[in-house]
Amino acid sequence: MLWVTGAGSGVGRATAIAAARDGWWVVASGRRVEALERTVFEIESAGGRGQVLPLDVRDGAAVRLASKVVRERWGRVDALVLSAGLNARRRRWADQSMDEFREIVDTNLTSTATVIDAALSDLRSSRGSVVVVSSQSAWQFNAGAGVAYSASKAGLAALCRTLNNQERSAGVRACCLYPGDIATEFLRHRPAVPDEASQKLMLMPEDVARVVCFVINSPPHVRIDELVLTPVSQA
Question: Backbone dihedral region of 53: left (phi > 0), alpha (psi from -120 to 50 degrees) or beta?
Answer without folding.
Answer: beta
